[in-house]
Fold each of these.
Amino acid sequence: MGMMMLSPLTIALPIKLLLLVMIDGWTILVQGLMMTFR
């Protein structure tokens, strides 16, 4: 429903933001794990 109306940019932008947030979350998680293992 109305997927053709959406431009690729409006679809790609939230995905890129989500990826950045996920990567940041992973780095924080890994750093936290490293701190606990030391």
Note: The mean pLDDT is 86.
Amino acid sequence: MANPDPRQPDSPAPRGSGDPSPAPAGRPAPSREPREKTPPPPEPTPPGAPAPGGEPAPPDFIRAAIVEDNLSGRFGGRVHTRFPPEPNGHLHIGHAKAIQVDFGVAAEFGGPCNLRFDDTNPAKEETAYVEAIRDDIRWLGHDWGDREYFASDYFEQLYQWAEQLIRQEQAYVCDLSAEEIRDYRGTLTRPGRESPHRNRSVEENLDLFRRMRAGECPDGARTLRARIDMASPNLNLRDPVMYRILRATHHRTGDRWCIYPMYDWAHGQSDSIEGITHSLCDLAYEDHRPLYDWFLEQLGVHRPRQIEFARLNLSHTVLSKRFLRRMVEEGVVAGWDDPRLPTLCGMRRRGYTPESIRDFCERVGLAKRESLVAV
């Protein structure tokens, strides 16, 4: 007889007894029927894997965009990504998410993922950071094979393309200081003003730009700027700087160059040179995408598709490389691998495994809006 009162637990049988003991007076006899076991919770379904019903799980917005591109024949069905760190510090847990996205998406679609060091600022970059970044990515379990590149590999090509834009009257040499450029740029509510040097002739701009390269101008005296639209509601399109004069020894090219490309000029063109199909970026670069596309369209070269996703933000955690560097340099912590830091080498020293970090990044998932993960 089944227990008529579900609020009363069944009495367990004594150890070694085949039958339950007689029930005390006033209590019903325990049920001989086996109780149903609570089924275990279902395992989480990986992105794109079949759901329990047999239907594929809906992909996230990045994978959905790639599937759409493949179905339309864009890029010939290829998927080629890249992870582009700047070698100016050690990687942290926030970078781990980007690594998982870049390498993971490429692997899922059967394509390669490049490792490219965006080394366009010699004042802050070091070979030691290059080696540390390689070690961290390998420790996480990813391999880029022979696909390791540097933005500095393309310095000459970037320079030649800059001259092409000058000849197309889409770039000019500007003598305004950095402070004046910021003032002329305007604000979100006030349109920018054109530089007094915006209408120099092609010949004068080519001559000045070549003199910049030859080292005839002091640091900060001139810049090369794109000629786009000083009234654009997108501040990134208000004649952005493409090159600045900076005398600093580069970790790979030495003192061969004294002008260096800005990130927005080097990034998209490096993607194009390497044949990248999908440039997966931090959400902070969403407003830079029109500039990314504009440069490539004017040059008439291969144009990857840039897709942005929210970075990983953790509560009570410093994930700014600038502040992490400051703590290291000022002796607040023992070094980049201090176990109190969220750097990958620090987390490794603290005892975290690469599997746990990869799993954490996968569970956080992808989003188009910034959020804070409580830890």
Note: The beta strands are 81-83, 113-117, 148-150, 171-174, 223-226, 241-245, 259-261, 278-282, 305-309.
Amino acid sequence: MKYLWLALRVFIHRFYDQFHRIFLGIPTLRRTRITEKIFVGGQYSIQKLPELKERGVTAIVNMRETSVYNESLYLGLKYLHLPTTDQTPPTLEDLQKGVDFISKEIAEGGKVYVHCRQGQGRGPTMAIAYLISTGMAFEKAFEAVKAIRIFINPTPSQRETLKEYEKSLLQKTV
């Protein structure tokens, strides 16, 4: 019964997030704010981009394989596109590019929205990589993101790449 309740809860949260994003054009804040400065979610509607700006978002990391919108439509938001095929991990190089972009933006007082198509795999993978870069262990970073977006589901290869990323950071500090 416990697992049935958990599965139902995950389904409801995922459905609500998808409904909100598709029909209202913007993800729900409650299920996207990972930290005060990082938001993770699915693709938003370009018409709702001003609302992201109103929430204080100053930069976007797009993890989708192809960009849905022309970069000129981003209303002055800083933008990084790291093309990643669905269900696959970003390269270690792209993880580092994303982490550097996010770190720089946060250091300048900004907030970053990281997204893929649905906010379940590639986007959360990048957010977890950022948390790892701050010194958080992989498992703790994964759980921190999952606590907010309970329906995230990085693939085994995405998880392995995050562990490799963590290991590479630990080797740099030695």
Note: The two ends are 47 Å apart (CA to CA).
Amino acid sequence: EKNNEIFLSGVRIVGELCKNSVQRTKSVLVELGVPWFLEILNCSKEEQVNASQYCLQVILNTLSGLDSKPESRPDEKLCEENKKEIDTLLTCLVYSTTSRTITGLARDAIIQLIMRNVHYKAINWAETLVEIKGLQRLMEVASELQEYKYESAMEITESTRTITAVCLARIYENMYYDKARERYLEAVDDYIKGKLITPEIESKVRVVVSLTCLLLGPLDVGNTIVARDGMLEMILVMANTDDKLQQQVACECIIAAASKKDKVKSIISQGVDILKKLYQSKDDGIRVRALVGLCKLGSMGGTDASIRPFADGSTTKLAEACRRFLINPAKDPDMRRWAVEGLSYLTLDADVKEKLIEDKKAIHAMLELAKSGNQASVYPVVTTLVNLCNAYEKQEVIPEMIELAKFAKHHIPEDHELDDPDFITKRCIVLAKEGVTSALVVLSKTESENCKELICRVFNAICAVQELRGVVVQQGGAKVLLPMALEGTEKGKKYAAQALSRIGITINPEVAFPGQRCVEVIRPLVMLLHPDCAALESFESLMALCNLAGVSETIRNRIVKEGGVTRIESYMFEEHLMLRRAATQCMTNMILSPDVIKMYEGKNDKTKFLFLLCGEEDEDTAQAAAGALAMLTSMSKKCCKK
């Protein structure tokens, strides 16, 4: 079919035919064959690639009993019955990753399909992938460079290497026992040794490029290989040559390798002079990479204001150099991405944060880069935003421990005066007014769960400022926070849920969470009512649930179904005054539900406890309890007798 719309509809119909029926799916596979699916996937139109990718995912879901819900798990019996079809399909996908005839978009889609299905929570196919030498193929893709064109080059996009790094990391996550990890390392070694045996420079360049990819994905594997004899030396020698390509890949590898403190020290002792020399290069691509290398080494002390690896004032100069690359419209997006990466390290320094937040041009350029949708720029942009909002965890330091550390002559990190709460709030307000929410909405499409966690941290920091919550809702923040509160890392889910509860406190729930969202937001809020959560998180969740419970009977029913009532009750026994008050007020709104009244009518002392709360010293708690009791007794004769 020549008409693209009709063709796309056809592909989508095939996908729908395969939904929820193993028999139909098998018939489709027999009738069309796996090569047909790979053929329609091989296209440079994003819409067609997405439709074909979705179609293949539906087939895998149906054969394994998975569905699109976050907590979905495969059906082991189905997986066993359809093992032949699943293995054939995934093997074909793995083999086609290194095909020279497919488009870059198709390659990305195939690697994403592998990444989504190898996990032990999905089809648990990671070990099979290692056995069929799939890692070597992924390493081959990881070693490709867009700048390096020759006859048998693969077509890749600017996001391919990032997606491959995430895929390699996802496979490594599933190597949960030592023998499997050894096999993974052997497969990577096999690829690297095969390349280093040949004397050509191109092979060495490819090794360094794939090593950079490993350092961005399965870090432990990357570090093991960098620590091998002669590896770091080879990279530094390449950085010292006059060949631009070698300088570029060596620079990128040095940046990726400088992630552990012990590695940083050896790189500072051997590599700083080389990086400084490269920064004098006439080629902008080399200069910006050398600059990022210096930025990363210079930020070794993190947020500790007392550690300065370089001379005073040098971080501000480096930040100024990054800014020049970032705001120059003549530079290509890749240059600007590197400039933001430099800033993501330098913004650990509070002086740089203040300089950057006052520079509207630079902030605007960074947010525009975030909205471009380039996967490689997600992490640097989000990290810079986390630093600007100070959205990282601060461990509570016991004063006695500080005294003990001083006595033991142990180093104590110092906070910068520009990292006080007033300065942080001011920075959050500037970012919100510059449209950071729209940028975060685009960035949240990333596959990386760690990046999503960082995005949730930024959202939570912005929602901590009451006047900014309306802006977050207007620009679609609440909509993207919901899925992130249900799926992702444990911390990420917690931050997203806290941001949602903050929105639910100050904005009418029907406006903040229109339609079905009002019901969906309940689960993440109830999750915050847990002894492991901080008191503030639980308090904010109770206040948001109180507002939601006043909206409609449907929502109250959902709170009951999610086990919210018992959790709310447990906080009514809390010693902390604010928590007890918030829980009692929340229960007052819940009393409107017939299901809750039935609970109070049962053989228990719930009504008695409400009566006792009416005598609380705190007036608000007493009023809420009295209101609840009044409604309860007006609707239930049993409770009146009690």
Note: The radius of gyration is 28 Å.
